[in-house]
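tool=predict chain=A
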Amino acid sequence: DHSLNGKTVLIAGGAKNLGGLIARDFARQGAKAIVIHYNSAATQADAEATVAAVQAAGSKAVALQGDLTSAAAMERLFADAVAAVGRPD
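tool=predict ok
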């Protein structure tokens, strides 16, 4: 089953451009929850706009910031995602 229906998704770089489009599309395809990662304050507003669009499409959404240039930051992003919406599928 390749359906996103009921799935929890984490999208690194999901605030804008291709990542934002993917987040919106996954919400339309029935994803239960989507974590939108953004890198810095410069893209926070884009992340918040994507969260609003995902929620309007019926999915739970949260934006999480992280500089993913280190393994520790990646681990923190996943831990924060699990705490916010559950384990990504």
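The chain has three helices and three strands. The mean pLDDT is 96.
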